[in-house]
Design brief:
- Helices cover 47% and strands 19% of the residues.
- It is an alpha+beta fold.
- Among the domains are: 139 residues, 2-Layer Sandwich (Alpha-Beta Plaits); 81 residues, Calcium-transporting ATPase, cytoplasmic transduction domain A (Distorted Sandwich); 148 residues, HAD superfamily/HAD-like (Rossmann fold, 3-Layer(aba) Sandwich); 124 residues, Calcium-transporting ATPase, cytoplasmic domain N.
- The strands form six sheets. A seven-stranded antiparallel β-sheet has the order 9-11-10-12-18-13-16, with no helix packed on it.
- Strand 22 and strand 23 form a beta hairpin.
- Helix 5 runs antiparallel to helix 6 and helix 14 packs parallel to helix 29.
- The two termini are 46 Å apart.
- It is an enzyme of class 7 (translocase).
- One of its GO terms (molecular function) is copper ion binding.
Length: 873
């Protein structure tokens, strides 16, 4: 059996694409890893593991060790669980094995004497619920689930102590009225804690850097410009500059030395190498000058550059801090989705309400949701009525009415009613969890354009180092002098910015996919996002895509000669003529219990008008014709024209209107009462709200729009006219839909196929971009590249516009990132020195200015990507 598992884990500490390459290389050293891909912007590593060769969690633990050795961290959580039911060490071993098989667990140890299990698992993969469940399946139990402690040393620090035990699902649950504080402590997000600690670490380094660099720069510049008098040229001032620069060089800059060492050990070169080399050259030369002056030699001159190395390091730290804060905002959409997840649920067990952690809700549990609370899990309403705000999923602000039998999603907000819900999906199976997983995978995927950037980045740092060497040699031969040549070398090393190139594509993709998720548009991966902007044709399935997919009463034509029959509601809803709900009630009463789609549509129309139906005394289904029934002592016939003719019914002058309705491709039912035609009831699959608007928007964008359907040509033409489509292919079999997609592609179109059913899945897979309606089948959504949660066609032009905006943003970022390096590295090398028209600061670019430019280049890329959040769709 070929069993493959895919894990996506956070990685802390990467600063550029060189770091990402080191993480990928280190991960692949672990046996059974078939593929390792790092998304630098989202700081995530995606692993594909062959579980046949080696247990997946064992591979994950080895990957974590390799990544740590490379100089980076995969944050984990530790969990302490008291165990009940062990009788010997074999029990402890069985529990260790059971826990070790839970996804994400990298370490499990059970102490038989202390009856305690210690577990360490990767943040975002494992959780307490599955671990407790694994213990119980092994035949044991736990009465406590101490809050996990985040582990990501040295970024986060030592683990915290376990909280006091609280009851879990296996022991007595805590009654809702007695549990206000019990479940307040929930699992911390170790990744968030690690990133917060990393930002705090950068902030402390920045404060120390500013504290020492500011006086250092003031003294150095003041002396150079003669602001402080002759006393500032004393030998002791150089020693003061040395004392101020050294803490910056070896405390603030220590991370760059460590990063450079580990990068070179991994046979790669990253940004840390450039910063460490550039600042060390300036610091070491200044130290040599200071030593020479101390022994009375002026061989190296009398000027030191301690302020250059210190300010460079401080500016780089400032840039990294700003970059980290800005990058945190690129994942705001996914964080908002995660923040919607409920921590606890109120379940009804043995007639009593209990508050339990949401992880311990079981399928089939009765969950009680009070007004104003979030629904904790997916389920079906079994009692109560309310309106539910589903904007979390659909982006629509209007609440949706829910009553018995209606489905609800976890994380949606209950309105003013009390609901009893039977849990049907829990944990990672809920709609919200699947959306979060899909968005994370899409944000972590690499766009095709990123491959070119990765190839350039692999050679970038070595090329810069080589260029710095060439710069030194050229300027020495040109007679510029050792110091001038050295300053240009430092400027070249410091100004190069591989980070901007590494962030250009993934930050835009993260923001673009996150924005799409916020309005109900889910891109399967970055490839789908990139391909969507290239579309030239959109093929639409009819039923369930353009239309509601459910027949509804569209017209009711009443004969002028038909008298009123019984009680009538004056507030009848369209399309029922005012004063004639009596006829609709009669027809629906005859059809109640019918399984025919037309009969069901008539019954739904009566229910929508609030009509109470009567029970038919007799009912007869007339195959190929309709039905006959006795309702309240009246003989009722409902069916086609052949039925009316067979029963010799007086048609009451309704034939012309019948022919008009038939021409509109509507299924028209004759209603006869006591031998006379009383009304015509037209039933059709109605067009969804917004379908016509969506088609108009697509055509305005210059796309070719066509409709594919298995329905008859007349019905298809009627729907197409209503929404403004002029290219219709009807009466197709599922396989023929695939042929139509291929035919359009053969004509040179880049085709999107939109559908919702199982029969659409092959065409969705064949299309350049397959788009599934969220209300459709799982098969269709699995085959699709884009899923529209709302099921609203207006999301299609929105998806295309978002894709175009995202790719435009990526091109802007790449232009800036490559343009910055292509333009400024030669300037730092001194290419403008021979030209008198160039400003002096560009003829001899000072390393401090080079550092400032580098520090803010990557920040500008992230900030530009964040503009997508304000893009109006």
């Amino acid at each position: 059996m070929n069993e493959k598992k895919q894990f996506t884990v956070p990685v802390i500490g990467m600063t550029c694409l060189g770091c990402a390459a080191s993480v990928e290389a280190g991960s692949k050293k672990a046996g059974a890893v078939e593929e390792a891909a790092v998304n630098f912007a989202s700081e995530r590593l995606t692993l594909t593991v062959d579980a046949n060769q080696r247990p997946a969690n064992e591979v994950l633990a080895e990957v974590r060790r390799q990544v740590t050795r490379a100089g980076y961290k995969i944050p984990t959580l530790t969990l302490s669980l008291p165990i009940i039911g062990m009788s010997c060490t074999a029990c402890a071993n069985a529990i260790e094995k059971a826990i070790g098989d839970v996804d994400g667990v990298v370490y499990a140890s059970v102490n038989f004497a202390a009856e305690q299990a210690s577990v360490e698992y990767v943040s975002g993969l494992g959780s307490r619920g599955p671990i407790v469940e694994a213990i119980r399946k092994a035949g044991y139990d736990t009465v406590a689930a101490a809050s996990p402690s985040p582990q990501a040393p040295p970024v986060v620090g030592a683990p915290g102590t376990a909280d006091a035990p609280v009851a879990s699902n296996g022991a007595s649950p805590v009654p809702a009225r007695a549990a206000p504080q019990v479940f307040e402590a929930h699992e911390e997000d170790a990744e968030a804690a690690a990133r917060a600690a990393a930002i705090q670490h950068e902030f402390i380094r920045l404060l120390v850097g500013v504290l020492f660099s500011l006086p250092l720069l003031t003294i150095s510049m003041g002396r150079d410009f003669g602001l402080f008098g002759a006393w500032m040229h004393g030998a002791w001032v150089n020693w003061l500059l040395f004392l101020l620069a050294t803490p910056v060089q070896f405390f603030v800059g220590w991370d760059y030395y460590v990063g450079a060492f580990k990068s070179l050990r991994n046979r790669s070169a990253n940004m840390d190498v450039l910063v460490a080399m550039g600042t060390t050259v300036a610091y070491a030369f200044s130290l040599a000058v200071l030593a020479a002056i101390s022994v009375g030699s002026d061989l190296l001159g009398g000027h030191v550059y301690f302020e250059t190395s210190a300010v460079i390091i401080t500016l780089v730290v400032l840039g990294k801090l700003l970059e980290a804060r800005a990058k945190g905002r690129t994942s705001a959409a996914i964080k908002e989705l995660m923040g919607l997840q409920s921590r606890t649920a109120r379940v009804l067990r043995a007639g009593q309400e209990f508050d339990v952690p949401v992880e311990e809700v079981l399928i089939g549990d009765m969950v009680v949701v009070r007004p104003g609370e979030r629904i904790p899990v997916d389920g079906v309403v079994v009692s109560g009525e309310s309106s539910v705000d589903e904007s979390t999923f659909t982006g629509e602000s209007m609440p949706v009415d829910k009553a018995s039998g209606a489905g609800v999603f976890g994380a949606t907000l209950n309105g003013r009613g009390l609901l009893g819900i039977e849990a049907t999906k829990i944990g990672r199976e809920t709609a919200l969890a699947q959306i979060i997983r899909l968005v994370e995978e899409a944000q972590g995927s690499k766009a095709p354009i990123q491959r070119m950037v990765d190839q350039v980045a692999a050679y970038f740092v070595p090329a810069v180092i080589g260029l710095a060497g060439v710069t030194f040699v050229v300027w020495m031969f040109a007679g510029a002098g050792f110091v001038a040549a050295l300053l240009r070398v430092v400027a070249v090393l410091v100004i190069a910015c591989p980070c901007a190139m590494g962030l250009a594509t993934p930050t835009s993709i993260m923001v673009g996919i996150g924005k799409g998720a916020g309005i109900g548009i889910l891109f399967k991966n970055s490839v789908a996002l990139e391909h969507t902007q290239k579309l030239t044709a959109v093929l639409l399935d009819k039923t369930g895509t353009i239309t509601q997919g459910e027949p509804a009463v569209t017209d009711m034509v009443v004969s002028q000669e038909t008298p009123a029959i019984g009680f009538d509601r004056p507030d009848a809803q369209l399309p029922i003529p005012a004063g004639r709900t009596d006829l609709l009630r009669l027809a629906a009463s005859a059809e109640r219990g019918s399984e025919h789609p037309l009969g069901e549509a008539i019954v739904r129309a009566a229910q929508a008008n609030g009509l109470e139906l009567a029970e038919p005394a007799q009912f007869e289904a007339l195959a190929g014709h309709g039905i006959a029934a006795d309702v309240e002592e009246k003989r009722v016939l409902l069916g086609n024209l052949r039925l009316m003719e067979r029963e010799e019914v007086d048609l009451n002058g309704l034939v012309p209107r019948y022919e008009e309705l038939q021409a509109e491709a509507k299924s028209t039912v004759w209603l006869a009462v006591d031998g006379r035609a009383a009304a015509l009831i037209a039933v059709a699959d109605t067009v969804k709200e917004g379908s016509g608007e969506a088609v108009a928007a697509l055509r305005k964008m210059g796309l070719t729009v066509a409709m594919l359907t298995g329905d008859n040509q007349a019905t298809a033409d009627a729907i197409a006219r209503e929404v403004g489509i002029n290219r219709v292919i009807a009466e197709l079999l599922p396989g023929q839909k695939v042929d139509q997609v291929k035919a359009m592609q053969a004509e040179g179109f880049r085709v999107a196929m939109l559908g919702d059913g199982i029969n659409d899945a092959p065409a969705l897979a064949q299309a350049d971009v397959g788009i599934a309606i969220g209300a459709g089948t799982d098969v269709a959504m699995e085959a699709a590249d884009v899923t529209l949660i709302r099921g609203d066609l207006r999301s299609v032009p929105q998806a295309i516009l978002l894709s175009q905006a995202t790719m435009r943003n990526i091109r802007q970022n790449l232009s800036w990132a490559f343009g910055y390096n292509v333009a400024l590295i030669p300037i730092a090398a001194g290419i403008l020195a021979p030209f008198p028209w160039a400003p002096p600061f560009l003829q001899q670019l000072h390393p401090i200015l080079a550092a400032a430019a580098m520090a803010f280049s990557s920040v500008s890329v992230v900030v530009n990507a964040l503009r997508l959040r304000q893009f109006q769709l």
